[in-house]
């Protein structure tokens, strides 16, 4: 964001530049509503200099008038199993790249690749493949969802492949990921659960409580042991009860926990989302997709790990029993729904989609905001909050659609 008077609401006049920018030429977006961490600047301008957000607009810059549009940080997805017809759990390298690019086209400039339950040999091999993509900068790391989850709350995970979270098995997955494991979801009430949470905390990996049948008290013990995330809060856990509050109350009330929410209109009633925001606030909410192959691809039959999934009218369910099986959500749709249906402010929505997950990943010095020096990751939205452009590290993934 500029530190000129234009950043305070009076963007300087942009000269006409009908030609495309030359290689390495700085770009300036003018006339925008720019959402910053501490303020929203109207009629502002944003400088992109190489791969980073710049301070001031040089005279040789290429100006693009985006009046009437919002410029927000690129979205950060902590929990994503695939998209564009490709699975992060079972696809080839090319398949995974296809899925990553599909989500980039919907504004997700940073994501964790999430696995689903499999046997240990398969998961360790998968960790090796995904870690290479993390080392290349295509993904921010790996999220293991399963196999260390409760059979009582298994959701769309193969029950016969579940196991208790013994620290030795957890350590095996972390070692296979070569330092690229960023988060692991587990049912902390199972044997070995608390010791595994402590191991994850020691290794700098996020311990996420999910697919759990824990009590309120057991959940508090897991938080005290070092757990910091609630995997898709409300889903795959006991409901909130007035005599047995279960994990939901513990996760909402503790400031150490960031709660994931799947805002697709299927996973959550709007009142549940409002409850989470009321108790946790935008600084402790991370919108996720929990997307599977069908995200951005269409209805049909798919596989999620070893389980067959039928997608109809954009809702993914196990073919065997109708259990919700991830989502077909993309984060641009989550943004629009949050503002137009749920009534959240644009600023709180930006926090939940960008700033909060970036902070959780320890990457807020690079991503999650439009401050000078950060990566030039941004999303361009029109007045109806429809996506009109995506930039990642200074390159347009979706060029500005301003007609």
Descriptive overview:
The chain is of the alpha/beta class and 403 residues long. It folds into two domains: 5-73 and 368-398, Roll (Urease, subunit C, domain 1); 75-360, TIM Barrel, CATH 3.20.20. It has nine helices and 21 strands. It has helices spanning 93-104, 120-135, 167-176, 193-202, 216-225, 246-253, 270-280, 331-340, 346-360; strands at residues 27-35, 40-49, 52-53, 62-65, 70-73, 75-77, 82-83, 86-87, 108-115, 141-145, 181-186, 206-209, 229-230, 258-262, 285-288, 300-304, 307-312, 315-318, 378-381, 387-392, 395-398. It is globular, with a radius of gyration of 21 Å. Mean pLDDT is 93; it is low at 1-19.
List the helices and strands and how they pair.
Layout: E1 27-35, E2 40-49, E3 52-53, E4 62-65, E5 70-73, E6 75-77, E7 82-83, E8 86-87, H1 93-104, E9 108-115, H2 120-135, E10 141-145, H3 167-176, E11 181-186, H4 193-202, E12 206-209, H5 216-225, E13 229-230, H6 246-253, E14 258-262, H7 270-280, E15 285-288, E16 300-304, E17 307-312, E18 315-318, H8 331-340, H9 346-360, E19 378-381, E20 387-392, E21 395-398
Parallel strand pairs: 1-4, 1-5, 6-9, 9-10, 10-11, 11-12, 12-13, 13-14, 14-15
Antiparallel strand pairs: 1-2, 2-3, 5-19, 7-8, 16-17, 17-18, 19-20, 20-21
Number of strands: 21
Named CATH topology of the largest domain: TIM Barrel
- Biggest sheet character: 8 strands, mixed
N→C terminal distance: 25 Å
The average pLDDT score comes to 93
Identify the CATH architecture of the largest domain: Alpha-Beta Barrel
Specify the helix fraction band.
Answer: 25-40%
Name the CATH superfamily classification of the largest domain: Metal-dependent hydrolases
CATH class of the largest domain: Alpha Beta
Low-confidence stretches: 1-19
Gross geometry:
globular
The Cα radius of gyration reads 21 Å
Q: In DSSP terms, counting alpha (H) and pi (I) runs of 4 or more, how many helices? A: 9
Number of domains: 2
Structural class: alpha/beta
Strand content: 15-25%
Helix-strand string: EEEEEEEEHEHEHEHEHEHEHEEEEHHEEE
Domain Amidohydrolase-related: 70-397
Keywords: Carbohydrate metabolism, Hydrolase, Metal-binding
Pfam families: Amidohydro_1 (PF01979)
Organism: Streptomyces djakartensis
């Amino acid at each position: 964001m500029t530190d000129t008077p234009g950043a305070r609401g009076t963007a300087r006049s942009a000269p006409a530049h009908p030609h495309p920018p030359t290689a390495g030429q700085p770009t300036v977006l003018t006339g925008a509503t720019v959402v910053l961490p501490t303020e929203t600047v109207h009629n502002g301008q944003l400088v992109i200099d190489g791969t980073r957000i710049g301070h001031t607009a040089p005279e040789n810059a290429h100006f693009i008038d985006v009046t009437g549009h919002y410029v927000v940080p690129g979205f950060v997805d902590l929990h994503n199993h695939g998209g564009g017809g490709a699975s992060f759990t079972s696809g080839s390298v090319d398949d995974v790249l296809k899925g990553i690019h599909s989500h980039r086209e919907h504004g997700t400039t940073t994501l964790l690749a999430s696995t689903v339950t499999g046997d240990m040999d398969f998961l360790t091999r998968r960790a090796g493949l995904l870690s290479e993509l993390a080392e290349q900068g295509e993904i921010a790391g790996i999220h293991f969802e399963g196999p260390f989850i409760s059979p009582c709350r298994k959701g769309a995970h193969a029950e016969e492949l579940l196991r208790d979270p013994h620290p030795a098995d957890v350590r095996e997955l972390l070692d296979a990921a070569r330092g690229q494991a960023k988060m692991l979801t587990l049912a902390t009430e199972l044997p070995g659960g608390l010791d595994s949470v402590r191991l994850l905390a020691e290794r700098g990996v996020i311990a996420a409580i999910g697919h759990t049948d824990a009590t309120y008290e057991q959940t508090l013990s897991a938080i005290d042991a070092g757990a910091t995330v609630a995997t898709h809060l409300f889903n795959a856990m006991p409901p909130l009860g007035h005599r047995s509050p279960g994990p939901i109350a513990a996760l909402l009330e503790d400031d150490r926990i960031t709660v994931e929410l799947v805002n697709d209109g299927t996973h959550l009633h709007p009142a549940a989302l409002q409850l989470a925001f009321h108790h946790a606030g935008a600084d402790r909410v991370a919108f996720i997709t929990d997307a599977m192959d069908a995200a951005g691809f269409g209805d049909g039959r798919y596989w999620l790990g070893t389980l067959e999934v039928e997608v109809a009218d954009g809702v993914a369910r196990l073919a065997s029993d109708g259990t919700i099986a991830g989502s077909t959500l993309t984060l641009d749709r989550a943004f629009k729904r949050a503002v137009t249906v749920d009534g959240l402010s644009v600023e709180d929505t930006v926090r939940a989609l960008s700033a909060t997950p970036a902070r959780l990943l320890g990457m807020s010095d690079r991503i999650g905001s439009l401050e000078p020096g950060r990566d030039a990751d941004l999303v361009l939205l029109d007045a109806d909050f429809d996506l009109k452009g995506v930039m990642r590290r200074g390159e347009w993934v979706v060029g500005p659609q301003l007609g």
